[in-house]
Amino acid sequence: SRISTTPVISKIQVDKVKIQNPATDFSFTHGSYLTINYIPGAYPGEEVNYQYKLTENEQWSDLYLKTELVLPNLPTGKYTLQIRAKQQGNFVWSASCKLNFEVTLPWYRTWWAIFVFFIIAILVVYIIVSINGKRLRTANLRLEVIVSERTAEVVLKNNILEQQKEEIQAQRDEIESQRDILIQQKDFILHQNNEI
Predict the structure, then answer these.
(1) For every one of its 196 residues, what pLDDT tens digit does the chain have, with 9 covering 90 and above?
(2) What 8-state DSSP symbol labels residue 4?
(3) How buried is 75 (Cβ within 10 angstroms: 0-12 exposed, 13-18 middle, 19+ buried)?
(4) In sequence order, what are the residues at sequence separation of 6 or more whose Cβ sits closer than 8 angstroms to the Cβ of residue 63?
(5) Which residues pair with 72 in a beta bridge?
(6) Helix (H, G, I), strand (E, B) or coil at 52
């Protein structure tokens, strides 16, 4: 058995944007898709099977003949992609070519973005509470003015009623006094009539 020739990575793209130096480690954000093109180290290339795995502990993928690998929506983390080849016939698997990369969190899921969102949420709540507090204070002041005006009206009406009560009381006292005088006069006239 002979060892198959190791495949060579020819092009790397993240969301159709080419990575210029595929020999160095690189990173991209979660939600992107990675496309890797490689060429077989042996001729003819159409008679080569490939397998890949993303971590050392992972099992090798099923066999396939394509020279392009598309990896969409990888979870965040560090990866060492390994690709190996096996030529048809009396060949064993090649050594694997390796590619190190990292899938990072999108900016809106980073700790500093979450912190900024938290601060913005606190500010929004503070502004809403402040606006509502100002509205309540304004409404309270208007209510106090209305209560003061109504209280003044009630006090004025109460004073008028008290004055009218005193006038009625004085008139009643005057009427009772005149009645008493009339009763005395009547008694006097009756007494005089009885004497005559």
Answers:
(1) 788 888 988 899 999 888 877 667 888 888 899 999 988 876 665 688 999 999 888 999 998 888 899 999 899 999 999 999 998 888 899 999 999 999 999 888 899 999 999 999 999 999 999 999 999 999 999 999 999 999 999 999 999 999 999 999 999 999 999 999 999 999 889 888 888 7
(2) P
(3) exposed
(4) 49, 50, 51
(5) 33
(6) strand
Question: What strands lie across the sheet with 77-87, from one edge to the other?
Answer: 26-29, 97-104, 77-87, 48-53
**SS3 assignment for 103-164:** EECCHHHCHHHHHHHHHHHHHHHHHHHHHHHHHHHHHHHHHHHHHHHHHHHHHHHHHHHHHH
Helix (H, G, I), strand (E, B) or coil at 134: helix
pTM above 0.70, yes or no: no
For residue 109, give the DSSP letter. G
Q: Tokens 């606190």 map to which residue?
A: 122
